[in-house]
Predict the structure of Ubiquinone biosynthesis O-methyltransferase.
Amino acid sequence: MTESTHNPGQPANDTVRNADDAELAKFADLAHKWWDMESEFKPLHEINPLRLGFIDGHAGLDGKTVLDVGCGGGILAEAMARSGATVTGLDLAEKSLKVARLHGLESGIKVDYRCLPVEQLAESMPTAFDVVTCMEMLEHVPEPSSVVAAVSRLVKPGGWVFFSTIARNPKAYLQAVVGAEYVLGLLPRGTHDYAKFLKPSELARMARNNGLDLVELKGMGYDLIAKSYHLNDDASVNYLLACRKAAA
């Protein structure tokens, strides 16, 4: 990554962005639907209580400074702010951030939204956050290891980092791509690129290589009968990873 001279809060140029323009375009086209509970983002609304509970159960959000990397329209960011955290939301999709800011005005929930790469923020604000979350984002970037490294720099010693993404194996392909996108229609077709999925062992290794200790790994399943999501011990498809940075 090259050094950037952009002002904080402004989009960086393409030479510093760990981003796929095609991926950003997908979310830009859907940006106006972020808070439509019956839209393509319905699954994110349905899993949000699980994500929030997992994070709060480990880190205790009340009174903490939190960074949400890949915040999109602010679904998780607002929930964490509502739980008492001071939240900064980071994303490269400006249209999504405009929706997030507008919804924050409507809801009265304050989140500081910024449009810049996480690597750039890590240069200017190392060890600034008690908690960093990076949910449903790593499978959409060209270099996930770069994001993990930046996240580790941003969290304080003793702080918490949370990831969620999709495992790479035939079962995950059948459920997360074929099933969710083509059979059940839970997600728009083309949402995911199977080649970008990460095995839990791969993500855990990236975390360890950047000074983050694995605390808990949980799977997230979908009950076809109840039409609801739940946490379990099967991390073969969707999973969450809780990590902690060693204290100074």
The longest strand covers residues 155-166.
